[in-house]
Amino acid sequence: MAYGLLNGKRGIISGALNEQSIAWKVALKAKEEGASFVLTNAPIAMRMGEINRLAEQCSAEIIPADATSVEDLEKLFTQSQEVLGGKIDFVLHSIGMSPNIRKGRAYTDLNYEWFKQSLDVSAMSLHKMLQVAYKQDAIAEWGSVVALTYMAAQRTFPFYTDMAEAKAMLESITRSFGYHYGKFRKVRVNTVSQSPTVTTAGSGIGGFDKFYGFADKIAPLGNASADQCADYCLTLFSDFTRMVTMQNLFHDGGFVSTGVSQEVMESL
Ligand SMILES: NC(=O)c1ccc[n+]([C@@H]2O[C@H](COP(=O)([O-])OP(=O)(O)OC[C@H]3O[C@@H](n4cnc5c(N)ncnc54)[C@H](O)[C@@H]3O)[C@@H](O)[C@H]2O)c1
């Protein structure tokens, strides 16, 4: 059921790669809730072509942008305002990639060039987006920016390797830029820390299946799905959360606050 939560709002949604992507679900639900938006992803992801189907469904334009390129991001924000006819009300940063994880490098054997890429793609890209938007004054007053993160920023999960550092940096940028953008235009910036979710990025992590099951058994509500994550993101884009900023918000069924569950105790 739609509530018209985003009626009249203009947005930029990054990171929809395929139907499993969290950003894909956000786009479908944002459409249902009355938003108009632009879809963006790295040019290489465009070649896979699936995003065209989503764009048709949402009557959205696609503007390719490598989130590590300031030049691409400048075009993204300029063109989005032209296409949508005004300043941007919400931005979803749903971008993550670690060459070290992709190539199976252990945390004790990281390739440092790849480590830099992990940080650039997964964390510094949020700073780049925000700085470009700030300089162009592209986000409307009381706008909302949400980036997706994972709890490995606070607690160690050995298989998450250098993405743990990337997420810690992402969450720090959220606080630091949240201050400046809050002062400048009352724009809020938050991260949503999501449960393990079956997506291309999620499933690429070693031991994901077992860990998915473990997290599901620990969290009293079970793992949050991508659809539920999208619902939560929409509330953060809506006018009902105007005073929430610079926060890391756990969307994990209670995992982070649970030491151990009865199910896990019994399985030992
Ligand atoms: N899946 C999980 O278990 C989980 C849990 C917590 C947080 N997250 C986070 O959610 C976000 C979305 O991931 P997902 O799980 O939907 O997987 P996904 O693989 O569907 O999405 C990741 C996206 O990042 C994009 N991307 C990679 N490099 C890019 C670049 N240089 N420029 C622009 N885009 C680029 C990819 O094309 C892809 O669309 C990520 O930040 C991820 O870390 C995922």
Automatic annotation (TrEMBL):
<dbReference type="GO" id="GO:0004318">
    <property type="term" value="F:enoyl-[acyl-carrier-protein] reductase (NADH) activity"/>
</dbReference>
<comment type="pathway">
    <text>Lipid metabolism; fatty acid biosynthesis.</text>
</comment>
<dbReference type="Pfam" id="PF13561">
    <property type="entry name" value="adh_short_C2"/>
</dbReference>
<dbReference type="InterPro" id="IPR014358">
    <property type="entry name" value="Enoyl-ACP_Rdtase_NADH"/>
</dbReference>
<comment type="similarity">
    <text>Belongs to the short-chain dehydrogenases/reductases (SDR) family. FabI subfamily.</text>
</comment>
<protein>
    <recommendedName>
        <fullName>Enoyl-[acyl-carrier-protein] reductase [NADH]</fullName>
        <ecNumber>1.3.1.9</ecNumber>
    </recommendedName>
</protein>
<keyword id="KW-0560">Oxidoreductase</keyword>
<dbReference type="InterPro" id="IPR002347">
    <property type="entry name" value="SDR_fam"/>
</dbReference>
<feature type="binding site">
    <location>
        <begin position="21"/>
        <end position="22"/>
    </location>
    <ligand>
        <name>NAD(+)</name>
    </ligand>
</feature>
<keyword id="KW-0276">Fatty acid metabolism</keyword>
<keyword id="KW-0443">Lipid metabolism</keyword>
<dbReference type="InterPro" id="IPR036291">
    <property type="entry name" value="NAD(P)-bd_dom_sf"/>
</dbReference>
<keyword id="KW-0520">NAD</keyword>
<feature type="binding site">
    <location>
        <position position="95"/>
    </location>
    <ligand>
        <name>NAD(+)</name>
    </ligand>
</feature>
<feature type="binding site">
    <location>
        <position position="15"/>
    </location>
    <ligand>
        <name>NAD(+)</name>
    </ligand>
</feature>
<feature type="binding site">
    <location>
        <position position="167"/>
    </location>
    <ligand>
        <name>NAD(+)</name>
    </ligand>
</feature>
<feature type="active site" description="Proton acceptor">
    <location>
        <position position="150"/>
    </location>
</feature>
<dbReference type="GO" id="GO:0006633">
    <property type="term" value="P:fatty acid biosynthetic process"/>
</dbReference>
<keyword id="KW-0444">Lipid biosynthesis</keyword>
<feature type="active site" description="Proton acceptor">
    <location>
        <position position="160"/>
    </location>
</feature>
<keyword id="KW-0275">Fatty acid biosynthesis</keyword>
